[in-house]
Write a structure and sequence with these properties.
Helix content: 25-40%
Shape: globular
Order of helices and strands: HEHEEHEEEEEHEHHEEEHEEHEHEHEHEH
CATH topology of the largest domain: Rossmann fold
Strand content: 25-35%
CATH architecture of the largest domain: 3-Layer(aba) Sandwich
Oligomer: single chain
CATH superfamily of the largest domain: Succinyl-CoA synthetase domains
Length: 382
C-alpha cells in the first residue's frame, strides 16, 4: 500500500523525523487558511501516488495566502499520470543548503533489507544511478541488528552526509520496522541553512500482509486508476510504459510483462508494460470488461495486450468480456488497438466470437511472442 506524501510525513513525525510545518487541504479555501496560519511563504504540492509532480506542474510556490489559494485551485483536480490530485499539501517553503537521498527497502532478490544513501538528492534516483552509479552508497542491512547509531553514522559518512543526518537515518529505519514498510524513501532529505536535517519529501510503501498488526486507515478505493481498480476487485498495478497488459493468473501476467519488455526493446522509444492486471483464474466477462475499462482510461496506454490461457476461465467467456467492454466504451474503445492471444479451454470458440464481432480495434495473434511484438510495435507507432 503506497501512502501519500502527507501520510508518509505523519509517520515520520511520529518517529521524530523533522518535516516542514503544514497540513493537507481539499479545497482552495482550506489551502488559503493553512497558508495564513503558517504566516510564511508556502509550497502547494499535489497529493498523488506517483512521481513527476513537479514536471507536471503539480508543485507550486506561493508567497502568501491568496497565492496559495490560486495555486490550490490550479492543482486540485489535476491529472498526473492517471492519478487525480484530490488534495494538496500546504507546507512552509524550506530553502535547502544541501540535498541528499536516503531510502530503506526490502530487497526481494537478496531476501533482505537494503539501504541506499547519496549526497546528491532532488532528482530521480534512476537518473542518478545511470549518470553516476558511484554516487549512491548501497549497504545490506542485517535484519537482526538493524540500523543502530554506529551503522547510521557509517552510512552517512560513506555518502558524504553530515553527522546530524545519521540520527535521521536511524529514525527512518525505525519507521521501516515499526510500521512494517517495504519502502521508506526521502528525496530530498535536506540540510537547511540553519544546519537542520529535514525530510522535504516522503515516500512509504506499507506491507498489506501486516495490516492485522496495525490500525491503518490509508486505503482510498476511489482514488486514481489503482483505487478504481481496487474498488472493482481487480489486482492492478500502474507502471510507466505504454503497453497495457491483461492476463489471467499472476504467473502468466508476470511472464507477459517480461515478454513485452523484451519485444519493446526492438522498437522506437522501447515501449514497456503500462500496468500489471491479473483478472484471476475464474474471472467472468464482467471482470474482463472492468479490466479493459481501467486500462483504456490510462492516457499513457498506446496499445493493449490481452494474454489469456483458458482454464477455469474459458476463452469464450474472456472473448465475450472483450466484446462487452468495447460495446460499453463506444468510440473510446476504438481509439487504441487491442491485441488478443487466446489459448487453452474453448480457445477456438473465443477466437470465433472475436472474429464475428469484427471490432476495428481488435487484432488476434496466436502466439505469446507474436502478440507481444505486435502490441509493442503498435505502441511505438512503428
Amino acid at each position: 500500500m503506497d501512502l501519500y506524501e502527507y501520510q508518509a510525513k505523519e509517520l515520520f513525525e511520529r518517529h521524530g523525523i523533522p518535516t516542514p510545518a503544514g497540513r493537507v487541504a481539499a479545497t482552495p479555501q482550506e489551502a488559503r487558511d493553512i497558508a495564513a496560519e503558517l504566516k510564511a511563504p508556502v509550497v502547494v504540492k499535489a497529493q498523488v501516488k506517483t512521481g513527476g509532480r513537479g514536471k507536471a506542474g503539480g508543485i507550486k510556490t506561493a508567497p502568501g495566502p491568496a497565492a496559495a489559494e490560486d495555486a490550490a485551485r490550479h492543482v486540485i483536480g489535476m491529472d498526473i499520470k492517471g492519478h487525480t490530485a484530490h488534495r494538496v499539501l500546504v507546507e512552509t517553503a524550506t530553502v535547502p543548503f544541501e540535498e541528499y537521498y536516503a531510502a530503506f527497502l526490502v530487497d526481494r532478490a537478496e531476501g533482505g533489507f537494503l539501504a541506499m544513501v547519496s549526497g546528491q538528492g532532488g532528482m530521480e534516483i534512476e537518473e542518478l544511478a545511470a549518470r553516476d552509479p558511484g554516487a549512491i552508497v548501497r549497504a545490506r542491512i542485517d535484519p537482526e541488528t538493524g540500523v543502530d547509531g554506529e551503522t547510521a553514522r557509517k552510512l552517512a559518512a560513506g555518502a558524504g552526509l553530515p553527522d546530524a543526518a545519521a540520527e535521521v537515518l536511524e529514525r527512518l529505519w525505525r519507521v521501516m520496522i515499526a510500521e512494517d514498510a517495504l519502502l521508506v524513501e526521502v528525496n530530498p532529505l535536506i540540510c537547511t541553512t540553519g544546519q537542520r536535517i529535514v525530510a522535504l519529501d516522503g515516500k512509504v510503501t506499507l506491507d498489506d500482509n501486516a495490516a492485522f498488526r496495525h490500525t491503518w486507515e490509508y486505503a482510498e478505493p476511489g482514488d486514481g486508476l489503482e483505487g478504481r481498480a481496487r474498488a472493482k476487485g481487480l489486482n492492478y498495478v500502474k507502471l510507466d510504459g505504454r503497453v497495457g497488459v491483461v492476463g489471467n493468473g499472476a504467473g502468466l501476467v508476470m511472464s507477459t510483462l517480461d515478454v513485452v519488455a523484451g519485444a519493446g526493446a526492438a522498437f522506437p522509444g522501447k515501449p514497456a508494460p503500462a500496468n500489471f492486471l491479473d483478472i484471476g483464474g475464474g474471472a467472468s466477462a464482467r471482470v474482463m470488461a472492468d479490466g479493459l475499462e481501467i486500462i483504456l482510461s490510462d492516457p499513457d496506454v498506446r496499445s493493449v495486450l490481452v494474454n489469456v490461457f483458458g482454464g477455469i476461465t474459458a476463452c469464450d467467456a474472456v472473448a465475450s468480456g472483450i466484446v462487452t467492454a468495447l460495446e460499453l466504451l463506444g468510440e473510446r474503445g476504438r481509439e487504441r488497438p487491442i491485441v488478443v492471444r487466446l489459448d487453452g479451454n474453448n480457445a477456438e470458440a473465443g477466437r470465433r466470437i472475436l472474429s464475428e464481432a469484427r471490432h476495428p480495434a481488435v487484432r488476434q495473434v496466436s502466439t505469446m511472442d507474436g502478440a507481444a511484438q505486435t502490441a509493442a510495435r503498435l505502441a511505438a507507432g512503428a
